[in-house]
Amino acid sequence: MKRALALLLIAAALAACGKKEEMAGEAAVESYGGAATAAAPAAEAGDAAQQVSPKRHIAVSHALTVETAPDHLDAAWQAAQQRCVEPQCELLSATLQRASDYTPGVAQLSLRIAPGAVAGYLAGLGREGRVVAQSTEREDKTDEVIDTEARLKNLAQLRDNLRQMLDSRNAKLEELLAVQKELAAAQAQLDAAAGLRLALANQTEKVKVDVELRAARSVAERSILTPLLDAWHDIGHDFIRSVAALLTVAAVLLPWLLVLWLPVRWWLKRRRRRLQLRAPDPS
């Protein structure tokens, strides 16, 4: 009886242990499954992040033609320059050609403006006269920016490696000189790449604006005969320029012709004298 009771206790203990191991196994499976389920969205998010396109670097440029009153051209040109205030605006060039007897006055400006200040600046130009022409161009500089940044990174790494080689105490003098030469070349290329990256940043982070201010022509100047008068004036200017070019060529060649003419004249006289000496005496 005691022996049977002991056997029953042992069997119950073994069954309890088997049940615990089964429950532990199921818990491990559920834990693994949950981890796999949680890892799946993370992997999908990583793939989505890799598929996101890089930041685009776009160079935007505007061109405007503004027609203003002839007596207001100079003031409009000055006002357009004064409206360009750093650091939001950078004036690249400004030219003014006042009116003559045959050509109306015209002024030109080239600027780079921060994107947020472009609308206000263009609105100010519209108040100076009538906008008769306007165009916008966009150029993608992303590939150039990515290539330049990769080149900068590689050149910086090369420069650092060469500097470490210079610090080596076991290197020979010839090796150090060669490394120093390569380091100077790498630094020069790095500076050039940095300048190119700065230029690209200036093109993509600011908007280029080209402005032409021109004086409005009167009704008489816009008559049907205006193209013929303009053509006649152009012909006269072209003829005068041709005559001026011809005089310039003559002034350049004349001294050389004189220098060459003297020895040629001397040679002709000498040749004529020899022929006279060789001629038979008629007597």
Automatic annotation (TrEMBL):
InterPro entries (alphabetical): DUF4349
Coiled coil: 138-189
Entry's transmembrane regions: 243-268
Start and end residues of each DUF4349 domain: 56-264
Signal peptide: 1-15
PROSITE patterns attached to this UniProt entry: PROKAR_LIPOPROTEIN (PS51257)
Keywords: Coiled coil, Membrane, Signal, Transmembrane, Transmembrane helix
Domain of life: Bacteria
Tagged with keyword Membrane: yes
Name assigned to this protein: DUF4349 domain-containing protein
